[in-house]
């Protein structure tokens, strides 16, 4: 069944449309501790949804529930249209899971490791070798396929973990802190792989406590804090309301300074990277840019200072204080 599991589009009964993951009002207690106090989110097919929040926010607890490894105390969950509490086998056939700490038997080779999981998922024995070779190529581990896992770098091990999660071609992929400790190049490779998966229609949910790790990766972001969903919105939608500083750079510094002065805008700092302007809304920033261009200032760069998602997150937390 796992052979076919990747291909059926499931119409979600809770959301009323095709969504890879739907979570409504989910809580989870551990004794008297409330790890989750009310989580709402959805992760559409074909997109990367980021689950962002500080340590202890409940990200791993939620992912374990979605991965059928924990049951919620209350609330509704659908993964590929199925309820993990009542149909864990159905969910496991359609869902891939990459835990934060990957237990790999270090003496195995990547090929042996993936073959073991392909067989565990009961993939047609005649197809296993081809599937494994294809996966190794896809995660750029073909050259290391037959070396023991312990010689792999952290980024290579992460990609092996991703290949393991993909071995049964799931339609929903859960990754817990996959970018933690990766160097920028490995992170870029991870981003490209997840982008390809999303483009093929997979619903990807990826957690991190570090916003900047996911900023360039995610289509959408869900913030969690203290077991609750803070805000669910598209990154662009959140960023729209954020008042951040702006940096502008022009080919002609004197013309830029003159035009800014004429409009009563005083740069806070100026460096080779450009002039840092005080915080203003996106609407005001767009108007200022139009005015500068209208004044024939040769603007080559104009954008918010720092990551938009970071700014959005900080603004959200400020509101909560
Ligand atoms: N098995 C458990 N028993 C008791 N408390 C737990 C257990 N698992 C998680 N918690 C608590 O639930 C909260 C959320 O933890 P977790 O989901 O690991 O957060 P995150 O992954 O966002 O760092 C924390 O306060 C944590 O201590
Ligand atoms: Mg965690």
UniProtKB/TrEMBL annotation:
Keywords: ATP-binding, Nucleotide-binding, Transport. The keyword Endoplasmic reticulum does not apply. It holds the Pfam family ABC_tran. One of its GO terms (molecular function) is ATP binding. It comes from the Bacteria. CDD domains: ABC_DR_subfamily_A. Gene3D superfamilies: P-loop containing nucleotide triphosphate hydrolases (3.40.50.300). Residues 21-251 form the ABC transporter domain. Belongs to the ABC transporter superfamily. PANTHER family: ABC TRANSPORTER, ABC TRANSPORTER, ATP-BINDING PROTEIN. This is ABC transporter ATP-binding protein. It comes from Luedemannella flava.
